[in-house]
Amino acid sequence: MKRITAIFVIMSFLLSLTTGCGSRRELNELAIVSGIAIDKQKGQYLVSAQVVDPGEVSDQKSGVAPATFYKAKGKSLLEALRRVSVKAPRKLYASHLQMLVISEKVASQGIGKILDAFFRDPDFRSDFLIVVTKGIEAQQLLLITTPIDKIPVGNMFKSLISSEKIWASVTTVTIDALVSDLVSEGKDPILTGITVTHKTEKKKLEKANKVTNIQQMRRDSVFKYVGLAVFKKDKLIGWLNEEESSGYNYVIDNVVQTAETIVCPKKKGNMTVIITKSHSKIKGIVENGKPKIQVRIQAKGKISEIDCKGSDITNPRTISLAETQIEQAIKRHVKTTVQTVQRKYQADIFGFGNSIQGAHPKAWNTMKKDWDKTFAHLPVDIDVRVTIQRTGKLKKSFIDDIK
Fold first, then answer.
1. DSSP assignment string, 349-398
2. Are β-strands 91-93 and 223-232 bridged in parallel, bridged antiparallel, or unpaired?
3. Residue 395: how many CA atoms within 13 Å on its side-chain side?
4. pTM (predicted TM-score)
5. Span 315-338, pLDDT tens digits
6. What would the 3-class secondary structure string for 212-259 be?
7. Strand pairing partners for 37?
8. What domains sit in the chain, N to C, each tagged with a CATH number?
């Protein structure tokens, strides 16, 4: 009897857990924040929020913007955020935040305090992506209407994730990864840059903020990702171009897929190879008290496009020559990036210091204080090995057979 009573009590308790949640928040009582932009105007923070209207996201309605834009100023970031909440008709719900957009101006002054506020607040999850605007205010990114995905920030979020998987010059950064780099002794942070087309044309930007921007084939303005922003501690100090951004991702083993175009072995036309796999390894070495770095990159690819006349890709020698050219191209990307960062910025965005620290902790303790100067002259040996595994669906191009 006691056993039956105990089972009944346990079952009653479990059933009580399924009846509801005391901390539940009804959807119609919340304003779901998809994106936040941070600018500075006259010494104050300008915080903008893109709030989703769930009813307008469905295909049943059209002609009405699926998201609303709110903004407010404050002496501190949290003050500005609170003022945005006052303007919104519902309580701001930030757990679904997808993108944090920081203006170039704010980033150059330091992002440490901003990250601390977002990192500390339990309302924010840690899986949202962070980007820096280039040549434009951050709020403009939340205003541009976009096709395919009705929520502008959702479009930017998905585009960044998908672009990282197919193009080597793009990378995603979450707040966890960014804070980890900031507190690390041997690595400086980077963030992907973003801008808009026609950024200097006021009329086109104003039109791009309206729903009509997605109701035409040729839109007035669209967003685009533009290389990587280089930070020294928490301050933006410069930018990497597309080739340099690609070289960075090769070094840190962050290339999923990308494309490399080379001149055909017989110097007639071009050949494009899709890099399908890439793996890199950084090795820190200390010899006679002096540090150096070895970067080893192994990549595999397939020939995707051929505009070569007189080149037989069924010939192993042709493939071997193509592999050598791609190796040289990747090595050039990496070398250019390393030299730019060493000479121009002296910011160890690759984490070479971490590699030295991991392999030689005692030596690192003596050199970490002046690591910026050491890094600027650090010898970096780059070795690249590429294997072309496939030549596409055709063993031989039909271009030579065209009469």
1. TT-HHHHHHHH-HHHHHHHGGGHHHHHHT--EEEEEEEEEEE--S-SS-S
2. unpaired
3. 3
4. 0.85
5. 888 899 999 999 999 999 999 999
6. HHHCCCCCCCCEEEEEEEEEECCEEEEEECHHHHHHHHHHCCCCCCEE
7. 48, 101
8. 27-240 (no CATH), 246-394 (3.30.300.210)
